[in-house]
Amino acid sequence: MSNQSTVLILINWLQGNKEWSVRKVFENRFHKVDLLGVNMPTSASNRLQTILNEWPSYLKLAWLGFFQGKKYDVFIDYTCIAGLFLGIFYSLVPFINRPKIILLKFVYIERDNKLYGKLRYLFFRWGLTSVDLAICSSLAEAQRHPKYFNSDPKKFVFIPFGIDSSMVEQFRVTADAQGKYIFAAGFSNRDYPTFINAVSSVDMPVVVVAKKYNLDGCQIPPHVQVFYDISRQEYYDKLQNAAFVVIPINDPTVSAGQLLALEAMYFGKPVIATKTQGLIDYIEDGYSGLLVTPSNVESMRKAILELKNNPRRARNISATGQAVVKNKFNVENFANSLADYAIDVIDQN
Questions:
Q1: Do 318 and 263 fall into the same domain?
Q2: Which domain holds residue 75?
Q3: Residues 173 and 262 in one domain
């Protein structure tokens, strides 16, 4: 069936890029593979602005996909939110034939605002009624979500992220082999207060790339530089010139930080990360990285000092992590696993 099946991939980047490795794998497995994308705004100073900027684009992407539904056997949505909108659209018109819908990067984070949290939960649950498969970034989430959303357990599966070397290699720079600073980055589910406290007494420069709201209430020490809304090239420059990378995560039950961890490991950077359900599937503590206790300043500081004061230990972890990413967590493995699931979903009547 796969050699006759048609696939539409919904994305918010790489519009029309036929060189994308996931697309290359899919074109070997399916009859036709098309991309549908929209331009997504990138700058936002707070979560509300992020929602107001991005969600209309997700809605537009879903609407465009909806009118092309008859041409494809399956939609694969890289944004998750657009796919949930599609699920709602199709639930309102159950009498028409629809393509199968697969959500990638399915992550659900509970919000502090009760009204917003309730509305968001209802949106996710409603959208999932017409979604055929949700790909989670951790095994724990794939096991937990069916009960939380009162859904079929077979609807949620875990596929590990994979690094696309053809994408990240275009950002490779001639990096300082010694590394000059500790690097932390990202804005989803980050615990920068613990990180800032951990490095406050460490005699080593620190570079942070985040959103402004990530550091609300933090007292930034003089040796910590913070950058907001930088370009991808600047981000990769700072990543590759770091001595090692720290990924502080807030809620240990929610996926976050996997992509940064794998990119850092790909470029041979030792990784220290909060021990979470999302990262234990990617980092083996003491072997391919170091995992620290959630929200524990001393645990994080101890790991930082271990890498700072023991270069041989850092090099061993670096080499192991790099080998693990290239052999296991690569885009070809990810794309082929996704294609296998897509074929199974298409064949289900």
A1: yes
A2: 2-162+330-347
A3: yes
Asked if residue 199 lies in contact with residue 226, where contact means CB atoms within 8 angstroms, the answer is no
pLDDT at position 239 is 96
Dihedrals phi, psi of 140, to nearest 5 degrees: -60, -40
Burial of 152 (0-12, 13-18, 19+ CB in 10 A): exposed
Averaged pLDDT for residues 37-54: 67
Alpha-carbon distance 244 to 269, whole Å? Answer: 5
Q: What mean pLDDT do residues 92-100 have?
A: 90
pLDDT in tens, 288-320: 999 999 999 999 999 999 999 999 999 999 999
Which of 19-23, 116-120, 283-287 has the highest average model confidence (pLDDT)?
A: 283-287
Whether 326 has a pLDDT exceeding 90, the answer reads yes
Torsion, Cα of 208, 211, 214, 220 (10° steps): 40
pLDDT tens column, 164-217? 998 899 899 887 766 789 999 999 899 999 999 999 999 999 999 999 889 988
Provide the whole-model pTM.
0.86
Q: What residue type is 71 in one-letter code?
A: K
Give the Cα separation of 236 and 260 in Å (integer). 10
Same domain, 192 and 307: yes
CA 329 vs. chain centroid, Å, equals 13
User: What is the per-residue DSSP string for 205-270?
Assistant: -EEEEE-GGGGTT----TTEEEEES--HHHHHHHHHT-SEEEE-BS-TTS--SHHHHHHHHHTT--
CATH code (residue 302): 3.40.50.2000
318 and 220 belong to one structural domain:
yes
Looking at the structure, tell me whether residues 170 and 145 fall in a common domain. Answer: no
Residue 231 and residue 289 share a domain: yes
H-helix or E-strand spanning residue 53: helix 47-66
> How many domains are there within the chain?
2
Angle, in degrees to the nearest 10, between helices 114-128 and 81-92: 60
